[in-house]
Write a sequence for this structure.
């Protein structure tokens, strides 16, 4: 089952969005080949004696047939849909949703109106950028093939509904921003050498030009000045280290804007209405990310609003840039504020449900904006806020399918003490009854991600149908709790986050309504490493482990991850080229300590994964198999960093449910009606 912290799709397990400055989830139309040592005949990793092929593009090892009972019980939890806003087309809403096997784009003409599909395909649509004009003739969207994260850009013509490829079909393209009259857009590409992050621009006729070329990774365009002759560009090094620059398009020269000294993060960055100021989010001089104003002439930086002891996730500006919608992350929940920039006054807003807030899209006239909302008990839907009347209008109502809303539950936020007396926040989905309940610990990836209380059918199924207490800790290194917390697991401190899981096991043992003898750990990507490391250190306290696209050895991971992201990962994990760091990374690699793993494992992997290559799963499967430890392995040949296509994802959910039922000894009377 997908980690309870997020749906595993391209981009979900990295702490960045594919159209953001820190774009690690950039994909191509043509799949990259995996390193030669990970491939066998037909592209399947060598050395694996696969068994069944339950789906055309999925191979398995050690996985038994799924029982009819499991299929029937989980089916209801696999039918819900979602909707999220992607922009305005005049008075119509462009949104993402799924009617078939992949997420596509649809138009809705009025609140609760019929969704009219405008893109079709076997691959999910990635990011979308609509030109900032009243009546756009089309829009740009991104798409990859097979989860390769090799995004190409396409133009969708709203009159003919034809999609035109804008890029070369083999290089990486991301980070689209439009100029103010919608005639040209900038983007990041590695077309020159396959690795460096250059910035190009293209007009609607398909003519392109180079704006910024440098032999480095991490560069992206952030905003286009109203005058059209300058853009903001960012150099991303790590989650806590970015620099914001201004590029003069006439001279090709750049200048540093922030930070002028020290190290800080940079998030959203936008010009003011007249281009004399720059608004940006940063933890500059603070533990917390806030919104700052920079005077371009003097370089002076001042707060836009008083700082709070919570991070700002992002902000969005109205078309004439007089209003700023700011989203805060308060203990995992999204909180919206609307600021009038000229007066500095916060405007009243209608009451929003407590949950998570998605992208904000102002209408062209600036008097309303669309926002995507979800709660633990309801999937994401699109609402429109009318600023003048302070009203909230629902535009979509996504289907729960056959789920009974009365059985859905919200998680409880707890905090438990760790080995150094720090309090670790965690969300718990409680099953019915007094217990003692078996426990499912789900560990997010990133590592600088955060479990947040979103709509999660996986956690709902585990709690309601299998009777598990689902616990999602935000161990040290998670985002959302300040700069210090974010860096508590860096480099040589890596295993301190694993010790946080040990402390959670202590907390579980002390809880009378939890069964400490039946605990399973689950995680994806970096969370997959955490699962393996937990089994190395705490096998005797665990019943089993489940990981998907996980890191089994940081050295081989860094050597084999795609070159365009390798230096960005070194900033977090350490540089494996340094002998001392290499020795340390080798010493904590779970693949070198399989002798300490004594519990059964389930492992999932996408063959085309450019982040955590399939070789990471292959080597841990080989090592565990050689030890004759029970291992179930699911390999999807048409997926990348997780399972994005519904048939693959549904099958993985079934396998997880089957594995849990067997390893925890669950019986029908114990797991629900």
């Amino acid at each position: 089952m997908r980690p309870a912290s997020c749906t595993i799709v391209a981009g979900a397990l990295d702490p960045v969005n594919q159209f953001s400055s820190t774009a690690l989830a950039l994909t191509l139309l043509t799949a990259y080949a995996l390193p030669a040592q990970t491939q066998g005949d037909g592209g399947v990793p060598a050395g694996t004696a696969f068994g069944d092929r339950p789906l055309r593009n999925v191979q398995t090892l050690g996985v038994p047939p799924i029982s009819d009972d499991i299929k029937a019980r989980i089916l209801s939890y696999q039918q819900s849909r979602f909707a999220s806003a992607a922009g305005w087309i005049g008075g119509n809403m462009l949104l993402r949703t799924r009617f078939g096997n992949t997420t596509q784009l649809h138009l809705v003409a009025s609140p609760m109106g019929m969704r009219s599909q405008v893109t079709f395909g076997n691959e999910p649509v990635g990011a979308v950028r609509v030109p900032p004009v009243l009546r756009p003739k089309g829009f740009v969207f991104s798409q990859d093939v097979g989860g390769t994260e090799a995004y190409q850009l396409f133009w969708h013509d709203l009159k003919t509904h034809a999609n035109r490829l804008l890029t070369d079909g083999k290089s990486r393209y991301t980070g689209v921003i439009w100029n103010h009259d919608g005639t040209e857009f900038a983007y990041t590409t590695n077309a020159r050498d396959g690795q460096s992050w250059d910035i190009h621009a293209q007009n609607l006729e398909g003519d392109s030009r180079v704006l910024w070329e440098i032999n480095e990774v991490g560069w992206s365009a952030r905003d286009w000045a109203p005058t059209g002759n300058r853009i903001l560009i960012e150099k991303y090094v790590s989650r806590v280290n970015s620099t914001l620059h201004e590029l003069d398009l006439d001279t090709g020269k750049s200048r540093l804007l922030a930070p002028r000294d020290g190290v800080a993060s940079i998030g959203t960055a936008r010009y003011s209405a007249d281009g004399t100021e720059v608004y940006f989010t940063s933890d500059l001089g603070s533990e917390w990310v806030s919104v700052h104003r920079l005077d371009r002439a003097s370089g002076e930086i001042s707060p836009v609003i008083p700082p709070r002891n919570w991070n700002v996730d992002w902000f969005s500006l109205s078309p004439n840039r007089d209003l700023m919608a700011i989203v805060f992350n308060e203990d995992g929940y999204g909180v919206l504020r609307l600021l009038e920039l000229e007066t500095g006054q916060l405007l009243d807003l209608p009451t929003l449900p407590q949950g998570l807030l998605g992208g904000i899209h102002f209408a062209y006239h600036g008097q309303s904006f669309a926002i995507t909302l979800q709660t633990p008990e309801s999937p994401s839907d699109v609402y429109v806020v009318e600023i003048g009347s302070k009203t909230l209008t629902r535009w979509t109502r996504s289907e729960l399918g056959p789920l009974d809303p009365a059985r859905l539950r919200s998680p409880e936020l707890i905090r438990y003490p760790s080995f150094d007396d720090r309090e670790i926040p965690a969300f718990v989905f409680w099953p019915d009854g007094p217990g003692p309940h078996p426990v499912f610990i789900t560990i997010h990836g990133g590592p600088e991600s955060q479990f947040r209380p979103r709509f999660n059918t996986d956690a709902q199924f585990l709690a309601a149908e299998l009777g598990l207490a689902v616990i999602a800790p935000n161990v040290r290194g998670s985002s959302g709790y300040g700069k210090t917390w974010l860096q508590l697991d860096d480099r040589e401190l890596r295993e301190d986050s694993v010790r946080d899981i040990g402390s959670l096991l202590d907390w579980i043992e002390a809880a009378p309504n939890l069964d400490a003898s039946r605990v399973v750990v689950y995680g994806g990507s970096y969370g997959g490493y955490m699962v393996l490391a937990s089994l190395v250190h705490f096998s005797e306290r665990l019943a089993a482990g489940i990981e998907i696209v996980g890191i089994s050895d940081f050295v081989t991971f860094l050597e084999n991850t795609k070159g365009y992201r390798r230096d960005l990962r070194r900033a977090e994990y350490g540089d494996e080229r340094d002998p001392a760091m290499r020795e340390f990374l080798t010493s904590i690699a779970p693949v070198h300590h399989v002798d300490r793993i004594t519990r059964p494992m389930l492992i999932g992997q996408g063959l085309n994964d450019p982040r955590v290559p399939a070789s990471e799963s292959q080597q841990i499967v080989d090592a565990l198999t050689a030890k004759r430890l029970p291992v179930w392995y699911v390999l999807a040949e048409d997926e990348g960093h997780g399972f994005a296509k519904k048939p693959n994802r549904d099958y993985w959910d079934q396998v997880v449910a089957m594995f849990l039922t067997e390893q925890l000894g669950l019986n029908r009377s114990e797991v629900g009606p």
